[in-house]
Amino acid sequence: MPTVRRGARAALALVAALHLPGCVAHPMPPAPGRLVATRPAAKAPAGPKRGYTLPVEFPPESPPAAKIGSFSTRIPRPGDLPAMAGRLQRHRVRAGEDLLTISRDMGIGFRALRDANPLIDEWEPRPGTELLVPTRWILPRAEFRGLVINVAELRAFLFPADPSPGAQVSVLTWPIGAGDAEWQTPIERFTVTDKDTNPTWVVPASIYRKMENPRSFVPPGPDNPLGKHRIRLSIESYLLHGTNDPWSVGRLTTHGCVRFYPEDVELLYDLVYPGLPGEFVYQPVKVTEEDGRVWLEVHRDIYRMVPDLHALAASEVARAGFAARVDRGRVRQVVEEEMGLPVDVTLDTRRATAE
Asked: Which pTM does this prediction carry?
């Protein structure tokens, strides 16, 4: 195994084993009133068996896959559904690549790329193998003001601070890392209150007790899990920040704070300011319509907040007024696969390709 792949695997294993948070996390569970899991987190499903049929088509041959960090969209008017943005891409694995390095290059998280390619060896994908790159999204239902973070899909969207309904706007988007099952990222509205560079990490008591060489503070530098940028929120003890471990983005590894790839948080840092509004939402199921077709996007219920994803999908489809227009068998498959990308579930034999 190449040295870089061994290093990536070792780094990821360390994060998984220690659950080291990259933030000044409050050493207490989320406060009453915040949305938290109602049942213990279960082990994630192993994924589909080899030989099954993917519920989505590969896009046609196109230019090499590239990071999609921004797009133009229209702010929904009251009663409108959120739009889709981006495009589904394909990437041919090169020698020495793994899903960690491909994810960062494409501007997506590790979990998103793995879920979209459940039959692929995440550590040693065969050179020449074609991957689906999930850079198409149904936007989450939100106020569409400032920073919208859908914790369920581990992705952030930055809208203008106060756009008018119906306005065409530019939106930036990035993958994130979030709190693990025991220290969940809170689901509520917030405002940005402050920001600083080269922060000092104040080690939470829960982490201090686990340190081999305990220390109360970690100064700026390569050992600081906050990275080089810190953004404070109105939700006490929760931050947005960079990381000294990029492999943790797209995973559940913090004590509730939200971390970004270093290159992404640098851009975000320059764009946010005190008073900017935002919200954390939790939407593992999203539905929309485009060109007369019904699209469904389903992510894993990472915090086990949803008793029945099938029931939630049926509810969201009905809420959008599409109950009589979808192929129920295809909806069922999309829910079961949890690939985290929009799939055409329209009731007919023609399938639109996500281009």
From this structure: 0.84
